[in-house]
Amino acid sequence: MRAFEYRKSSYSDQAAECVEIATNIPTTVAVRDSKNPNGPSLHLNPTTWTAFQTCLRSTRS
Q1: What pLDDT is recorded for position 25?
Q2: Residue 20: which of 41, 1, 3 has the closest Cα?
Q3: Rounded distance, CA 14 to CA 49, Å?
Q4: What is the helix, strand, coil percentage profile of the chain, to 5?
Q5: pTM
Q6: Residue 61's pLDDT is what?
Q7: Any residues with CB less than 8 A from the CB of 26 and at least 6 apart, and which?
Q8: DSSP 8-state code for residue 50
Q9: Spans of the chain, pLDDT less than 50
Q10: From CA 38, how far away is CA 36, in angstroms rounded?
């Protein structure tokens, strides 16, 4: 299995409170706290990730 390739979310504070996501595995979107890269990560299927993003966007309006 390939390793997740994380990148910081464009919505994260680049200096401190950062969320990182990995989308390089077609069946999984992985999310982790950049301050704890060896800690737990949340793994979602792409459909759930899209629904999550849609919900977040609707609450910011």
Answers
A1: 95
A2: 41
A3: 22
A4: 25, 30, 45
A5: 0.80
A6: 61
A7: 46
A8: H
A9: none
A10: 6
String of b and e for 3-24 (b: at least 16 CB within 10 Å)? ebebeeeeeeeeeeeeebbbee
Cβ atoms of 31 and 20 within 8 Å: the answer is yes
Indicate the domain borders of the chain: 6-59
Across the chain, the runs of DSSP E, i.e. the strands, are 6-8, 19-25, 28-33, 42-44
pLDDT digits (tens, 9 = 90+) for 27-41: 999 999 988 989 999
What is the pLDDT, as a whole number, of residue 7?
A: 93
Tokens of 36: 């704890």
